[in-house]
Design goal:
This protein is an alpha/beta fold and 313 residues long. It has one domain: Ribonuclease Inhibitor (Leucine-rich repeat, LRR (right-handed beta-alpha superhelix), Alpha-Beta Horseshoe), CATH 3.80.10. The chain is 13% helix and 19% strand. It is built from three helices and 18 strands. The strands form three sheets. An eleven-stranded mixed beta sheet has the order 1-2-4-6-8-9-10-12-14-16-18, with no helix packed on it. A four-stranded parallel beta sheet has the order 11-13-15-17, with no helix packed on it. A three-stranded parallel beta sheet has the order 3-5-7, with no helix packed on it. It is elongated, with a radius of gyration of 26 Å.
């Protein structure tokens, strides 16, 4: 008996489904939204002039620096690739991203507010570019972020207080920018923070006592800013601290006598401030100290002391 029209239609439908499934396996299923977001980055950063460009007619999996897993874009590594222009708002549509690396390019503008959508982001590296815009408040919504590396740019404005929401952050590198204002008190809420590098900016104000709540800190580098006031005695509770670099600021007064409790300290640079008094065997009390500087560039004795002094309010 000849097959009915209905059975022919059913077979055709099955073949179509099989063809679609094979196509899915062969080419993956990166969503249109994510692919369009990548194209927006390409267009906004002058993709045709990249050192290694993308062939937009090929599958996303073959695009340079794009990591796809389970048909989701999870990584974007375009370092040293001659990107210029700005990061588009559409980057916020790449909601599965875990790593962004735009190191050493010529990207201008700033970090778009849509960055808040990237809840899985672990590392954000846009260091050594030409960013100038202030950091958006929304950066505090990156719940999974561990490394924030934006050094060697021209970022202006203040560090937003929302930085304290980054509970998983262990590395904060914002040195060599144009940052102003005070270090937010919320910095003390970052219990996993190990390194805070803010040197060569224009930040000012007193060092907040709350920094002592970040017990995991190993490196504090604040040199070449406009910080002032006495060094809070609470900093001496950071017993994991290995590097304390606060030279070239406007700190004054006497160092707290508990400094000797920082037994893991290897580098202590406090010169070119206005610390007063006479040095009292500090180097001998810090047996692991390898680098110690407490004088100013004019060879005037800006000598540190271990005498007790109350912190400024």
């Amino acid at each position: 008996m000849p097959p009915s029209a209905k059975s022919i239609q059913m077979k055709t439908a099955r073949l179509t489904l099989i063809f679609c499934f094979v196509t899915f396996l062969s080419f993956g299923n990166v969503s249109t939204l994510e692919k369009d977001a990548l194209k927006a980055i390409y267009n906004s950063t002058n993709g045709a002039q990249w050192s290694t460009t993308w062939d937009l007619n090929k599958p996303v999996q073959e695009w340079h620096g794009v990591t796809v897993k389970g048909d989701k874009v999870i990584g974007l590594n375009l370092e040293y690739n001659n990107l210029s222009g700005t990061i588009p708002q559409e980057i916020g549509d790449l909601v599965h991203l875990r790593h962004i690396n735009f190191f050493r390019n010529r990207i201008s503008g700033g970090i778009p507010t849509t960055i808040k959508n990237l809840k899985s982001l672990v590392t954000l590296n846009v260091a050594f570019n030409k960013l100038t815009n202030p950091l958006p408040e929304e950066i505090g919504e990156l719940n999974s972020l561990r490394k924030l590396q934006l050094f060697m740019n021209g970022i202006q404005g203040e560090i937003p207080s929302t930085i304290g929401q980054l509970k998983n952050l262990n590395t904060l590198e914002l040195y060599n920018n144009e940052l102003t204002g005070e270090l937010p008190k919320s910095i003390g809420e970052l219990s996993k923070l190990k390194e805070i590098l803010l040197s060569s900016n224009q930040m000012s104000g007193k060092l907040p006592k709350t920094i002592s709540n970040a017990k995991g800190l190993k490196v504090i580098s604040l040199f070449e800013n406009n910080f002032f006031g006495t060094l809070p005695s609470s900093i001496c509770s950071l017993t994991n601290l290995e590097e304390l670099v606060i030279s070239n600021n406007a700190f004054y007064g006497k160092l707290p006598n508990q400094m000797a409790s920082l037994s893991n300290l290897k580098i202590l640079l406090i010169g070119n401030n206005d610390f007063k008094g006479e040095l009292v065997d500090l180097q001998a009390k810090l047996p692991n100290l390898k680098q110690f500087d407490f004088v100013d560039v004019n060879n005037q004795s800006s000598i540190a002391t271990l005498d007790t002094e109350e912190d400024d309010d």
